[in-house]
Amino acid sequence: MKLNHLKKQHPAQSGFTLIELMITITVMTIVLFMGSSLTSAWIDQSQVNNATSSIQSAISQAKALALRNTNNTPLTAAAASACLTSTSSQNVIKVVRGECASATASVQEMPISNRITIKEDPNSSDQITCISFNSIGVVVPVTGCLASSNPTLTIGKNNESATIVIR
Questions:
Q1: Predicted confidence (pLDDT) per residue in 10-64, tens digit
Q2: Which of 7, 86, 102, 130 is the most exposed place for a label (fewest CB within 10 A)?
Q3: What pLDDT does 84 receive?
């Protein structure tokens, strides 16, 4: 009599092996780091764009205020200025009558990110603190302010930047 030995079948194993889990975690980590760096650059560019818009608006308002020249300011002096002031939490662009140093009240204030840099020369470490306009809307040299008659400003944060030409 022949005995047939019955083989006991093992149920199919379910779940993942350690190697599969390690590969999955590695791929997810790579995707996460790529996504976070792209998001960071996108946020920086957005803040640069917002600052550029605010600065252009402040320059336009300062020019308009200077052209109105309600103080009868002479042609060689600042009739209005766009001033950059820093606080601990953010930078603020103020539009004032006259020079920034002697201004008592601002006509308009616009906040921008505190990590934004505004420079006339992108290779310089000197930040712009003000731009002054005379009664015909031309940039005038004022102590501590932008002195060039047709300046080009570079607004930047980290690796993102934008350029404004003032005319």
A1: 555 677 888 989 999 999 999 888 877 778 888 889 999 999 999 999 999 999 9
A2: 7
A3: 87
Residues 122, 76: contact at Cβ < 8 Å? no
| Spatial separation of the C-alpha atoms in residues 82 and 69, rounded to whole Å | 15
For position 4, what pLDDT does the model report? 56
Tokens of 70: 């309600």
Between CA 29 and CA 35, with CA 34 as vertex, the angle to 5 degrees is 95
- How far apart, in Å, are the Cα atoms of 63 and each of 25, 28, 52, 152, 167? 57, 52, 16, 16, 10
Q: Which amino acid is it at 130?
A: C
Tokens of 58: 């402040």
Closest CA to 75 of 149, 136, 13: 136
Task: Please identify which residue in the block is written with the tokens 């600042």.
Answer: 78
Q: Write down the number of H helices and E strands in the chain.
A: 1, 7
E strands within the chain? Answer: 80-86, 91-97, 106-112, 117-119, 130-133, 152-157, 160-165
Tens digit of each residue's pLDDT (9 = 90 or more) over 59-71: 999 999 999 987 7
